[in-house]
Specification:
Strand content: over 45%
Number of domains: 1
Structural class: mainly beta
Helix content: under 10%
CATH architecture: Sandwich
Oligomer: single chain
Mean pLDDT: 90
Largest sheet: 7 strands, antiparallel
Number of strands: 15
Shape: globular
């Protein structure tokens, strides 16, 4: 049964839109200056948004079953594990269907004397049905990784990457 809410179709009355929340329980790195998709290997919740494998067979493509405007957010725990290297920066940007989205890149610094940094921001993008978004990163230091930390007795696990998408229109 489909009900209409404010001109939009949904599976139940009051349905606010499509969404997905995904996270990674794996460390991730790119080597040096190699644009690499962030991957997520777990789904927390999803309706109309899923994750598909990229050409390398890794789950990085946040795929939209329905057209609309979505707020795509991410957070990533970066860790500079030290060991030398002259760089300390990471670039992160968005791609739509394999093409870089203009003006979506941001650079962050992960110093060895402050080795943990959480990068987090969002981007609003209109997509067609079956389009996909990827979060891409590259760093100038192979010792900077997106780091997963397992749960402890006193705290839950820390995903290396969390990506969410919520339909807003």
């Amino acid at each position: 049964m489909v009900f209409r809410v404010a001109g939009r179709a949904g599976p139940a009355a009051g349905y606010a839109g499509y969404y997905g929340s995904f996270y990674s329980t794996q460390d991730q790195s790119d080597g040096i200056d190699t644009p690499t998709p962030m991957t997520v290997n777990n789904t927390a919740e999803a309706a109309g948004v899923s994750v598909a494998n990229n050409l390398s067979g890794n789950p990085s493509r946040v795929t939209f079953a329905y057209a609309g405007t979505y707020n795509i957010q991410f957070s990533a725990q970066l860790h500079n594990t030290g060991g030398g290297g002259s760089g300390q920066t990471v670039n992160i940007w968005f791609r739509l269907n394999g093409i870089n989205i203009p003006n979506s890149d941001t650079k962050v610094t992960v110093n060895t004397n402050n080795p943990y940094f959480v990068a987090a921001w969002n981007f609003i993008q209109t997509v067609s049905a079956n389009d996909y978004i990827e979060m891409i990163f590259k760093t100038d230091n192979a010792n900077i990784v997106f780091e997963y930390e397992a749960a402890t007795v006193n705290s839950p696990a820390i995903p290396s990457v969390i990506i969410t998408a919520q339909q807003i229109r």
